Amino acid sequence: MITCAEDAVASVESRIAEMVGPQRFNVWFKNATRFTFTDEFLRIAAPNHFISEWIERHFTDVIIEAAREVTQRDYTLSFAIDPMLAKSLGKKQPDRQVDFVANNPERLARQQQRRRDTLPSTPILKGRLSNFVVGASNRMAFAAATHTAESPAGQYNPLFIHGGCGLGKTHLLQGICNEMKDRYSDLRWRYVTGEEFTNDYVYAVKSREMSVFHDRYRSLDALIIDDVHFLANKRATQEEFLHTFKAIDAAGKQIVLASDAHPKMIGHFSESLVSRFISGMVVRIESPDLEVRMGVLRQRAERLKVDVSESVIVHIAENFRANIRELEGALLKVVAQAQVTEQPISRSLAERAIRDLIRQTAPVVMLSDIESVVAIFFGLTPADLHTSRKSRTIALARGIAMYLARKHTDMSFPEIGRFMGNKNHSTVILASRRISKKLQGNETARWMTPAGQKEQNLPELVEELEQQCCGQAAGAEVDQCLAVS
Predict the structure, then answer these.
(1) N or C, fewer C-beta in 10 Å, the chain?
(2) How far apart are CA 186 and CA 143, in angstroms?
(3) Measured between alpha carbons, how far is residue 132 from residues 84, 168, 302, 316, 481 in Å?
(4) Same structural domain for residues 393 and 468?
(5) Residues 9 and 134 grouped into a single domain
(6) DSSP calls for 281-298
(7) Which residue has the higher pLDDT, 101 or 228?
């Protein structure tokens, strides 16, 4: 058993490299993460939300197993964002990441098939409606999810939940599944991400097992798909999903979907799909209000089995307004600081522990939200914006993201450049000026889609994206005003 923290981190990283292979380790971990051990937690810091969420989604089990083998104990993982890590990313690493994402479905499908016989038919999902913290920012979404779980294929069908990263969409979808499983033991349901649906479809096509695919999805009583925006820019998969949607809907069964953006703001989605998405209940989760943030922190402290005073809860909740993950990461850092220094968790200790985090997350509108909204609208991924590629669509999307980042955050040109794939500050300056000039000239934006060229008035397009980005911050701004008054 290794006791030195630095030795443990090095050994865990080495074991991860062995388990995932050198290519994937170099793309997603080398220079892109920082591991830190505390008494109960292993904290994984990443330079941006895209890398953090990809690692969390695809490598959680690998990290837990590697840490267990090295330390002979189980750790709970905590994911955090540290923009300073962007400095250590190589210039070509974002390109390798986007290549990996683009080519990943077929490889994952093969791996999934090899594991299929050993995996449980019903996944174990963590989220439950009973421990979802409800407030003004998410009450409508929670009510719709609860009603759907209690009465599948009832009033809210299809149910489409959208909102920024880390606001609780996945929690609600998993909660619906767990509630249906508890209430209706014979109900046939399936929970997958948009990526997993794509992987299943790709494998079915390549292995000529479409009948198996159809039986697996079209005979369900409830289909729940998270991150459905992953299907954007995938025409064949969308066509298959449309037929699946029609089959389930015609049978009077339930469909639940979640995305980071409103259906109309997802680029490269067919009009047939969008019209079906908005035919049911479309509900948005806003950024968590003060009530929700404090409730989340109290619940998290209870799970950590630590005594956290109300003053510390208030201090963290007032300074982290973007999403739930930031809140939990801040609390974890306070707890870790108390454990390392062997001091009680006081307001002064909390202020010292999270001072740097507050400086990094001060903007109400986060750059990660901006690039997520922009990427989804153009049918891209954040990795595409980080790459050095300069196709018309990517260049337009990247320029708009940089312009909005400069307008709506306090980040400097170099900071924006580092965050978006380690770009030079001059690239950000030129992109912002180019978009600003086009806006002043009331120009038309043109970009390519799989169906051909698309165009829209640029000021109108930017205004739509601003509403999508800034709407997530409205609740937080109200909280801030109330706190000041």
Answers:
(1) C
(2) 24
(3) 32, 8, 14, 19, 26
(4) yes
(5) no
(6) EEEEPPSP-HHHHHHHHH
(7) 228
Rounded CA gap, 399 and 445, in Å? 12
Of 269, 284, 299, the residue that ends a domain is: 284
CB 105 within 8 A of CB 203: no
Same structural domain, 397 and 347: no
| Paired tokens of 289 | 């209000």
Transcribe 169-200 into DSSP letters: HHHHHHHHHHHHHHH-TT--EEEEEHHHHHHH
What stretch of H or E contains 385? helix 382-386
How many domains is the chain built from? 4
Let me know: does 289 contact 478? Beta carbons within 8 Å.
yes
CB 221 within 8 A of CB 251: no
CA atoms within a 13 Å half-sphere pointing along the CA-CB vector of 32: 25
Q: Are residue 142 and residue 268 in the same domain, yes or no?
A: yes
What are the two backbone dihedrals, phi and then psi, of residue 288, each rounded to the nearest 5 degrees? -60, 130
> Could you give the strand order of the β-sheet that contains 254-259, starting from the edge strand earlier in sequence?
189-193, 222-226, 254-259, 159-162, 281-284
CA-based nearest residue to 16, from 37, 40, 33? 33
* Strands 452-457 and 222-226, sheet pairing: unpaired
The CATH number of the domain holding residue 480 is 1.10.1750.10
Range(s) of the domain holding residue 241: 120-284
Q: For residue 337, what are the contacts with CB-CB under 8 A and spacing of at least 6?
A: 343, 349, 352, 353
Angstrom distance (rounded) from CA 44 to CA 54:
12
Tens digit of each residue's pLDDT (9 = 90 or more) over 171-186: 999 999 999 999 998 8
pLDDT of residue 480: 38
Contacts of 63 (CB under 8 A, 6+ apart): 12, 16, 42, 44, 55, 77
Whether residue 254 is found in the same domain as residue 130: yes
473: confidence class by pLDDT, cuts 50, 70, 90: very low
Considering the domain architecture, whether residues 28 and 100 belong to the same structural domain is answered as yes
- The verdict on 56 and 136 lying in the same domain is no
